[in-house]
Structures are given as C-alpha cells and as structure tokens.
Design goal:
This protein is mainly β. The protein folds into 2 domains: about 80 residues, no CATH class; about 130 residues, no CATH class. About 0% of the residues lie in helices and about 70% in strands. The protein contains 1 helix and 22 strands. The protein is elongated.
Length: about 230
C-alpha cells in the first residue's frame, strides 16, 4: 500500500493508500481509501473512506459521505455532504448540510451550522451550534465568552445556539433555543429557552432561562445565575 505526498496541489487518484499528505489545492477522487491523511491546504472530495484524518486547513465535501475512524484538527469543513466517524475533535467552522454521526464522542469548539442530524454517544460543544436535531446520551452546549473570541469571529460567536429538537439522557445547555427537549435530566442556563421540555427526573434552570411547557413530572430546581 503506497503513501502519497502532494504539497503543491494536484489530484489523488482513486485507490488504496497508506498515508496521504496534502498541501495546496487538492482533489480526491471518489472511492479513495486511506489509512491516514493530513490536510494542510484546501482539499475537495466526495465519498472517501479512511482511518485517521487530521485537518489543518480547509476541507470541502460538496456531496456524498466522508467515513473515517477519527477526525480531528482545526480549520473549516464545508459542503452538503455527511460525516460519519468514530471520534470527532475539531476547532473552527463546520458548515455542512448533511448529517454528522459519531459513534463515540463529538467534541467541537467554534461554529457548527446547517446539519439535519448531529448524533453521537456524547456531544460537547463550546461555541455556537445551529442544527435541526441532536441525538446523544449526553449533550453539553456552552457559549464562548466574548473576551476569548478572536475579534473577527465576535459577531457570530456571541449569537445564541438554536437546535429545534434535542433528544438525550442528560442535557446541559447554555444560551440555546430549543422547540422540544426530551431528557431524563436537563439544566438550562444563560438565557436558554425551551418551548416544550419533557424531563423524567430533574429540570434545573437559572433565573434567565425558561421552559414554556414542562411535561414528565420532573423535580424542578431554580439556581442563581443569568
């Protein structure tokens, strides 16, 4: 199984590879398989499959699926395709219109928007998320403090997150709007607003957060905070 290095752009022909190292503008043909890949430029692909993928640049997925054992790094992931991976740990921007399905933990810092489904065993987001549906055992959404956000990103990083439907076992959401939240236990903080909360054990809210309709008979707790 061959390795391939393209540091000044080019095309990765369909085939089976060990390690792929890319820089510049690179196109990867559909059906390509790899054991590991490191992206440092601008990569465009559709329907590729591999083991470890590290992105330190721009990754475009116009259509189809990306399937990997793990996805990590920082930069941008853009397009209409879907992502399926065992582990995701990424910082920056993910603006995709397909689904993101992670077998284990999804850890993300930055802006994530456009997805139909975001599903994982555990979802931990620091920043802003705007997706249609989240499904996980544990969901944590926290907003970044403006003082730690680079000036060029302040306008979008101070926005509230919006996820119309969240289905999980435990939810801890900060500055997030939601139409329907289904959980055993939920905590709403920093101006979170839920139209309908279906909780079975405990629903905790600070003074700035609210649930319009509460079902499931949870124990309600009110804590300090804003």
């Amino acid at each position: 199984m061959q390795n391939l290095t393209l540091m000044h752009g080019g095309t990765v022909k369909r085939g089976m590879y060990g390690h792929i190292e890319t820089g510049g503008r690179v196109f990867v043909e559909p059906g390509t398989h790899f054991q590991s890949m490191h992206v440092t430029g601008d990569l465009i692909c559709a329907n590729i499959c591999g083991g470890t993928l590290v992105i330190d640049g721009s990754f475009q997925l116009p259509t189809g699926e990306l399937k990997t054992g793990s996805l990590s790094g920082q930069g941008r992931i853009l397009g209409e395709g879907s992502i399926r991976t065992a582990r995701l740990d990424f910082k920056g921007l993910i603006r995709t219109e397909g689904d993101i399905v992670v077998k284990q933990t999804l850890k993300f810092t930055g802006l994530m928007e456009g997805q139909r489904w975001v599903a994982a065993r555990q979802i931990d987001i620091l920043g802003v998320v705007q997706a249609q549906t989240m499904l996980a055992s544990n969901v944590t959404i926290r907003n970044m403090h403006p003082k730690v956000v680079p000036l060029e990103h302040v306008k979008w990083m101070v926005r509230a997150s919006r996820v119309p439907m969240i289905i999980c076992r435990e939810a801890n959401i900060h500055r997030c709007g939601c139409h329907l939240l289904q959980a055993y236990e939920a905590e709403l903080r920093e101006g979170s607003l839920v139209r309908e909360a279906v909780c079975l054990t405990t629903l905790t809210m600070d003074q700035s957060s609210a649930a319009v309709l509460i079902q499931g008979g949870p124990k309600r707790k009110h804590v300090a905070g804003h």
